[in-house]
């Protein structure tokens, strides 16, 4: 728990033990920690340098714990200060990058990354750098990165990053396939399945994409695509695959495919009135429904069509024949 301020598990245990007794000599503390005395003394010396422990002036050979509220508070303040400086440096670098990207040459919009380690690093960086959403197409043939080796999804999800993932059905046949899909669904990721995806693909925040390249008898490579027309095409490709894929859900029997139900008669009435320009409240009053009921139905229809805005929902409603244009 105190690793963020520079204490590993052993030193944290030493400090906790010293706090619990208030003061102790090296031998007594070594017994409590089941460590050697020399190792215990080294731990105490480090705590002393951190301001968390000190040798007793009244009884030589005994060590006393510094008050946690004071000592840890000072370390946390210092750590916050360092983080603030790092955030400022990152913001300045990001601004420099944006300024340079505005005048980037065409050949700078696509990078070629070569080598398994390099591709894996960029894969992690793209996910860890995402602030809002990661979209991915996943095949059943992992070459460089597999789910068991990558904890970036969990770390990104903890920061509130949304995931939308389409996997090939062959992923179910991988040794850890079901386990990884269950973990993804457990993190509230949206996962869908198709028979086959056109390519492996990862897109972060709609501004950066990674496309692995497959070439027999050569080392792994990938394209990193920055904001450009090519990136827009890749985003469109993902949305097309996502729209036609079947949702996965996690039930008592494990991961199963969920056939999407079509809109019912009330859904179609809601859609028609919204497209006619009525507000949610007006639709609710017109159909004698609760406002939250209308909003839930609209949200379900957006999930069903795989869209994120109501404008997109209206377009898909026309495309799918859910509503008819008045002549």
Automatic annotation (TrEMBL):
Q: Which InterPro entries match?
A: Sig_transdc_resp-reg_C-effctor, TrmB-like, Tscrpt_reg_LuxR_C, Tscrpt_reg_TrmB_N, WH-like_DNA-bd_sf, WH_DNA-bd_sf
Question: Which residue ranges does the record assign to the HTH luxR-type domain?
Answer: 260-317
Judging by the UniProt lineage, the source's domain of life is Bacteria
Q: Name one Pfam family in it.
A: TrmB
Name of the protein this chain belongs to: Helix-turn-helix domain-containing protein
Q: Which organism is it from?
A: Streptomyces fuscus
């Amino acid at each position: 728990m105190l690793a963020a301020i520079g204490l590993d598990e052993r030193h944290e245990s030493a400090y906790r033990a010293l706090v619990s007794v208030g003061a102790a000599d090296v031998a007594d503390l070594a017994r409590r920690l089941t460590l050697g005395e020399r190792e215990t003394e080294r731990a105490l010396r480090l705590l002393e340098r951190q301001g968390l422990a000190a040798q007793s002036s009244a009884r030589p050979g005994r060590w006393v714990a510094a008050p946690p509220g004071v000592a840890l508070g000072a370390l946390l303040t210092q750590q916050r200060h360092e983080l603030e400086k790092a955030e400022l440096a990152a913001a300045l670098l990001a601004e420099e990058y944006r300024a340079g990207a505005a005048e980037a040459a065409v050949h700078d919009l696509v990078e070629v990354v070569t080598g398994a380690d390099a591709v894996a690093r960029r894969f992690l960086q793209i996910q860890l750098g995402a602030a809002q959403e990661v979209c991915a197409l996943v095949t059943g043939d992992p070459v460089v990165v597999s789910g068991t080796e990558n904890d970036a999804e969990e770390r990104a999800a903890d920061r509130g990053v949304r995931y939308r993932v389409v996997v090939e059905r062959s992923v179910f046949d991988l040794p850890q396939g079901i386990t990884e899909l269950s973990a993804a669904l457990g993190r509230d990721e949206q996962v869908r399945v198709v028979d086959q995806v056109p390519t492996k693909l990862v897109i972060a925040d709609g501004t950066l994409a990674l496309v692995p390249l497959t070439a027999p008898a050569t080392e792994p490579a990938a394209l990193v695509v920055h904001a450009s027309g090519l990136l827009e095409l890749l985003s469109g490709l993902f949305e097309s695959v996502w729209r036609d894929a079947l949702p996965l859900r996690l039930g008592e029997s494990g991961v199963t495919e969920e056939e999407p139900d079509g809109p019912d008669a009330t859904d179609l009435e809601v859609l028609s009135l919204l497209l006619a320009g009525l507000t949610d409240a007006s639709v609710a009053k017109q159909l004698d429904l609760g406002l939250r009921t209308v909003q839930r139905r609209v949200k379900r229809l957006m999930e069903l069509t795989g869209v994120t805005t109501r404008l997109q929902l209206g377009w898909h409603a026309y495309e799918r024949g859910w509503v008819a244009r008045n002549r």
